[in-house]
Amino acid sequence: MGHTITEKILLAHTDKDAITPGEFILARVDIALANDVTAPIAIDGFKKIGAREVFDKDKIALVPDHFAPNKDIKSAEQCKIMRDFAHAQDITHFFEVGAMGIEHALLPEQGIVVPGDLVIGADSHTCTYGALGAFSTGVGSTDLAAAMATGLVWLKVPESIDFTLNGTLQKWVCGKDVILFIIGQIGVDGALYKAMEFSGSVIENLGIDDRLTICNMAIEAGGKSGIINPDEVTEAYVKERLPEGKEYTLYTSDDDAMYSEKYEFDLSALDPQVSFPHLPENTHSVTEAADVKVDQVVIGSCTNGRITDLRVAAEIFKGKKVAKGVRTIIFPATQQIYKQALKEGLFEIFVDAGCAVSTPTCGPCLGGHMGILAKGERAIASTNRNFIGRMGHPESEVYLASPAVCAASAVKGSIVHPEEIVR
Amino acid sequence: MKLKGRVHVFGENINTDEIIPARYLNTSDPQELAKHCMEDADKDFMSKMVPGDIIVAGKNFGCGSSREHAPIALKAAKVSLIIAPTFARIFFRNAINIGLPILECKEAAENIKSGDEVEVDLDTGAIQDVTTGRFYNAQKYPEFMKELISEGGLMPWVQKRKQFK
Question: What is the ipTM of this complex?
Answer without folding.
Answer: 0.95
